Amino acid sequence: MTPTSHIEIPDDHRGLYRLFEILPGTISWLLLILPLIFSFRYPLAVSSVLILYTLFWLIRAIRMNARLIAGYLRYRTAIKRDWLVECESLPAELGWNELRQVVIMTWYNEDKSILKASIQSLIQSHYPLKRIFFVLAVEERGGPAVRQAAEELKQEFKGQFGDFMIALHPGDIAGEVRGKGANITYAAKLVRTELDQKGIDYEQAVVTTLDADNRVHPKYLANLAFMFLTDVDPLHHSYQPIPMFFNNIWDVPLPIRSISVGSSFWQLTESMRPHRLRNFSSHAQGFAALVATDFWSVHTIVEDGHQYWRTFFRFNGRHSVVPLYVPIYQDAVLSPKGYLASFQEQYLQKRRWAWGVSDVPYVFTRLLRRRTFSVDAWIQAFRLLEGHVSWATTSLMLAVVGWAPIYLNRSFRATVLAVNYPLLYERILQTAAFGLVISFMVSLLMLPPFPKGRKKVSLSFILEWSTAPFLLPITNVLFGALPSLESQTRLMFGKYLGFHVTEKAAQRHEQESLVAKH
Q: What CATH number was assigned to the domain covering residues 93-354?
């Protein structure tokens, strides 16, 4: 497979690019291996560093819990506001009446019922449907049955929206990597033709990309419209709603439910740090900005985060992400092949997300090619690198490597520090575990109610959180550190990932259950 960089980076920079492909994995492996080696000779120094490292992550955990609470309060405020009324109250010169919302929904081979439910969530939006340009971006590789189903959906829903287009993405376009980026770029170029024919200014359109399983909150489109119209510089911003993996949350295995809740909460906490926020999964951007960046990359399987950097460099660093606190609901991983297959799909999904590490060589190489030096740009680049290294190493450091001085050096066990080290180390980790109480309370407030007609499994819910202190370290390693470490190792050796579409079971909850609480 052709890596992103070798297409977007000139030939004379390929060696430098390759060096930065090796860098993240090298750092991660050294962080994991060196404490083990040095524990034989310098156990006191290693144990002291590991205690400081654990204290550092304790402070981070406390700050993350504070941001989770703040993010939840922002979310509650956002979903209570009547964004449509606020849009209608805007001054005429801001262009509310002229704004067109383009929604591109991708489809490979998911069950038709999944697409149908996602489209129905758009119809339930508190927004003028005739101002929505809906595009069903269908992969030709999905086969004749998918194309036929797409036509059936068009016949069923085309009267609901201002426009309903099917964009059939050919599977044999030279130079493209199979993935969402190539699909939505092809669709967006067809949209550009339509806007040109209708004389609609690019600055009067904003685009949201959705996966097949994505259900928008009824207030999402109005929220996006208000933020876009009142933005003094929409060309240099993209907009990131909170992804919540709640569609089928009560149907998935208990460990996957914990992972899905954790992923949702992580995005909520990140929204409280806009300076670190990046495009993730479904996101929105003005059409004028997309045209300026030639839409999304067709050379990478991780088009969302990569789009941030493409826009960043296109506008010479003038780009940032605006958080939206009205969510888009997504499926937690649940394979139609059963629970064991679901765990495999969860791992593969996390590995694909972790493949965002491929942005590291792209970013660092581009920065070195710039004629001007920007402190902010380099800070952003090192945040990217640090984030991926932490993803691959933190869980393993805390759960495994932290005990290396005790178990690898017998003579160290008789020292005063060694006697107290396990107790001190455990106390630090236990203090950090108190954050689970906060997560538990927030999950009670945010998770959808149990489906109608099903017995309430409150015992299972209590069991899940009571066993969390024991299960989380395991799931964090298996579905966090390991897929991230694999992605970095693959990048080190040039074993580039291909796009894998996560399998999705058709069983899902009703949209009303997701917003009924609020």
A: 3.90.550.10
